[in-house]
Amino acid sequence: MGEEGYKAGMESSVEIEALSVFDDRRKVLALVHMNAAAALVLFSIIQYVEPGYFPLAVTEAALAVVMVINYWWIGRGADLTVIENILMLCAVILFSALVYLDSIENTGVYWVAGYPFVAYFVHPARQAKFWVAGYACLLAATGFLVSFGFIELPYSAIQVFCLVAVVLFFSVLSHIYKSQLELRTHQLAHFNRQLEQQQKRMQVVLDHSPIGIWMIDAGRHIQFLNKSWVTWSGISEEQAREVDDYTTLLSDELAESSLLSDQACLNGEGAHYFNQEVLCADDQLRTFDMIKVKLTDSQGKVTGLVGFAIDITDKLQAEIEQATLERQVQHSQRLESLGVMAGGIAHDFNNLLTAIQGSVELAKLEGSLSSGLQESLECIDTASKAAADLCRQMLAYSGKGLFKPEQLQLCDLVDEMRSLLDVSISKNISLQFHQCQQSSLIQGDRGQINQVLLNLVINASEAIGTNAPGEINISITVEDLSNPDTHSFSGAELIQGQYVVLKVEDNGCGMDAEVIEHMFDPFFTTKFTGRGLGMSAILGILNAHEGGLEVTSTPGSGTTMTVWFPHQNGIRDDSQKPQTQAANTSGRVLVVDDEQAVLNVAKRMLERLGLEVETAHDGREAVAAYSADQRFDWVLLDVTMPEMDGVECLKKLREINPDLYVVMSSGYDPENALALSENSMPNDFLTKPYTIEALRQVVEKTV
């Protein structure tokens, strides 16, 4: 199925004919004058040799000279209309001489019948009929002159009139033939003009089509290339037509595949479809949808191929980008769902931990506790604090953790953590710091950013392990982000601007694509003892800080974690902390919470602080209690409750007493817990789980 099969299938019966001389009117007239001159010279010699025919010989010789002059004039570009009229005048003179002058055996008159053919050959039918009519009138006048005896000819008047009839008869035949020929010529010219216009329109369509189109003949010669193919190939149509085989213009691999696809097209029925990658003139590898169709003549023999190439490179790239975007959206939706679940679980756990930690603190304040009981309480307290820390990580992942923003110099923050980072990694690992000289001012929560850096460094240390020496590099730079789409960020959606970039690099074991895809999922871990919340918490923290994380990792080569924080160009705000006042040892408090355990613990802790406490289990009950008795100094109000939540309850209480001091409490951070509170804001906020010391500080503020 190689070149022999290709040539066998592409054998053509089409032959290209050269243009005939008769397609050029000027050449035809030149040929007529040359032959006429030769014939006149020949007849002139014959008439001259025979005695008595000298006048006719001289006439024919003179006309031969005129024919030669006209031939020369035609070659110099003379007006053909003038040449045609001269030719007709010469014909009139010649045929008149054949009638009026003596000729050998009086045979000259026989040639007169050919005058109509000469007239209709030289002129169009509308002009030739006048030349014939004029000559017929001349012959008729001659017949009358002969009949009346004014002139003597070797012919009788009847013979002359018969000659007129013959001329008219042949003129009618010539007129009919020439008129039909001119009609066909006019129709053909009209069709040719239409075809030319259609070809021009088609050429515009082909040249401006985004589809590459080419055509080859039976010998694999290029017959046509449109502009799209010329642009892609870098070869002009003229250059392509000069080669004997179009495959010589292609690479060896592409030439071989082209021959195979040509043969497949010839062997099949209809169009042949396939895909082809082609290295184009701009050095870009493009992918094309190819279509090849064989061309046949009226006998069904193959005369060539026409091909179409549709560039689908951008389409394929768009499909890849679309698939990537869909995966990112699905991943974001999964993380969002997990975040909602994690936040809800952490909130409920914080309610339970409030009761546990509060009960432990109250128990510790009781006297005469045995050492064993004290040890048990310490164990419970430690476990509850660990659980509270776990809840904080879950809330950080969900974006609802406690967030206390302040302006921080990231370089200073890293310097403060050096000693902690040094003791957090294995002794076989070298920790290197590279800080920029520019301002690294960011807006963020100090504790949460410390958690981000500590988690990243610990993860890098665990990736290196304890067996081989390793290195962790921490660098801080200030960079301009001009095109976020060129990066693959996790966390918040970054916009163009200036960022402080924290980069943690290690030469550990690295991660594959599957691990990277799931590394931010809660409870996903590759460590035996891990909880799988470290990276999840980092993602939540970065969302809260409007920052992003870029992960670059190769198995066996290490990992680079790049954190982008929005750069703050303002002046650092070091505001003074508010001064606390002495504790109020008396007062009346309304505690509102739907969790009975939390309600009991809060009541006991506040009573321990010397306050009188009343309780309510939901917002409706609290509003009813305060409406009945407004002798409360302040209210401790839970945010999330059935029937009427804390935000709605706060509005109702403020309608009753706009100056009422209200402290709200939730397992979420204040920003998320009070997102729907609009203009009704509490005086203070207490994050669960809270301790008796935290309650003491709140009591001090209520003075």
From TrEMBL:
Residues 344-569 form the Histidine kinase domain. Keywords: Membrane, Phosphoprotein, Transmembrane, Transmembrane helix. It comes from the Bacteria. One of its GO terms (molecular function) is phosphorelay sensor kinase activity. It catalyses: ATP + protein L-histidine = ADP + protein N-phospho-L-histidine. Its EC number is 2.7.13.3. InterPro entries: CheY-like_superfamily, HATPase_C_sf, HATPase_dom, His_kinase_dom, HisK_dim/P_dom, HisK_dim/P_sf, MASE6, PAS. CDD domains: HisKA (cd00082), REC_hyHK_CKI1_RcsC-like (cd17546). Pfam families: HATPase_c, HisKA, MASE6, PAS_4, Response_reg. The keyword Flavoprotein does not apply. This is histidine kinase. It comes from Mariprofundus micogutta.
